[in-house]
């Protein structure tokens, strides 16, 4: 009962899944602190530990190769990991993925188990993080990585006919929504609870102001880490909802968590895609919190349909 009480009015409005309640209970028992209570380095270490505890394990049969993508303004380049399953299709789809973490925490390593379930080629991108690298650094890195993949499909193990899509969750979804507007030639996009408007005006921000996990207070903290100043919130690169046109964007699958301050923000963005004639699909996962998607070791029931949908969606863009 105490765990449910932590959700306040939201706990009375929504049916919170048992996996959600037990996840936060276990996190508390293990001593995980909120990101705003720790340094970025501590937060990154905690994210990796959380992944090790809750993200499960996949016995990946295939190859993993490393590349460093050149990027203007980033002398070190953008490291990427390319996963190619042994049983991949003859002309595989290539999914360029940007990990979550509010542009502050997260890494390729913490997302590898999830991405090794995708049944296609995956390019896992290690973009620069804030506060060391303020926006638009991460956006520049992800844009460069995506263009590079489109130009180097055979070099990384794909086929000249491979179709390339992008995706990401949370902060990674934020990056993917922006990149989809700037990079031409993409076949699909998979957006998992992205933030698309930094004004934070959508109704769900009020509903989940101080609930467990990612709440509106924490979203504000993340924004404060990666923004140079408040004026950037109105920059359409950082707030893709403000983009002047949505015409011609690739088909989109959007997966959202019901118990998430970012929920209504993403729904409004998806509506703009629909109005522009973009093929869109929405899966709202009832009773799920933000960040459940890559923690399939714990959220076994809540991730089943989303993972099936992702695999089915990507299949449309590859040939046997």
UniProtKB/TrEMBL annotation:
Transmembrane segments: none annotated. It comes from Batillaria attramentaria. The keyword Hydrolase applies. It comes from the Eukaryota. Keywords: Hydrolase. This is Alpha/beta hydrolase fold-3 domain-containing protein. Residues 96-293 form the Alpha/beta hydrolase fold-3 domain. Coiled coil: none annotated. One of its GO terms (molecular function) is hydrolase activity. The keyword Hydrolase applies. InterPro entries: AB_hydrolase_3 (IPR013094), AB_hydrolase_fold (IPR029058), GDXG_lipolytic_enzyme (IPR050300).
């Amino acid at each position: 009962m105490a765990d449910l009480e932590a959700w306040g009015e939201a706990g009375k409005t929504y049916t919170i899944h048992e996996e959600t309640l037990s996840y936060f209970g276990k996190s508390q028992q293990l001593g995980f602190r909120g990101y705003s209570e720790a340094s970025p380095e501590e937060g990154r270490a905690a994210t990796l530990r959380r992944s090790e505890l809750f993200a499960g394990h996949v016995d990946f049969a295939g190859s993993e190769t490393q590349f460093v993508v050149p990027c203007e303004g980033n002398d070190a380049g953008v490291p990427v990991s390319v996963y190619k399953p042994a049983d991949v299709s003859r002309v595989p789809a290539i999914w360029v993925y940007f990990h979550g973490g509010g542009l502050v925490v997260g890494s390729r390593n913490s997302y590898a188990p999830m991405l090794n379930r995708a049944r296609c080629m995956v390019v896992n991108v290690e973009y620069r993080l804030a506060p060391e690298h303020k926006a638009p650094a991460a956006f520049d890195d992800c844009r460069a990585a995506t263009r590079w993949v489109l130009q180097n499909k055979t070099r990384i193990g794909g086929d000249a006919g491979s179709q390339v899509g992008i995706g990401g969750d949370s902060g990674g979804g934020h990056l993917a929504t922006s990149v989809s507007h700037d990079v031409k030639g993409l076949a699909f996009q998979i957006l998992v609870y992205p933030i698309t408007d930094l004004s934070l005006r959508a109704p769900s921000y009020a509903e989940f102001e101080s609930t467990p996990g990612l709440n509106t207070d924490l979203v504000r903290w993340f924004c404060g880490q990666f923004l140079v100043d408040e004026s950037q919130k109105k920059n359409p690169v950082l707030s893709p909802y403000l983009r002047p046109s949505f015409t011609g964007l690739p088909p989109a699958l959007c997966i959202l968590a019901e118990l998430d301050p970012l929920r209504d923000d993403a729904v409004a963005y998806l509506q703009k895609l629909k109005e522009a004639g973009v093929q869109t699909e929405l899966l709202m996962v009832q009773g799920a919190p933000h960040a459940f998607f890559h923690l399939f070791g714990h959220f076994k029931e809540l991730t089943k349909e989303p993972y099936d949908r992702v695999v089915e969606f990507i299949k449309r863009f590859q040939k046997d």
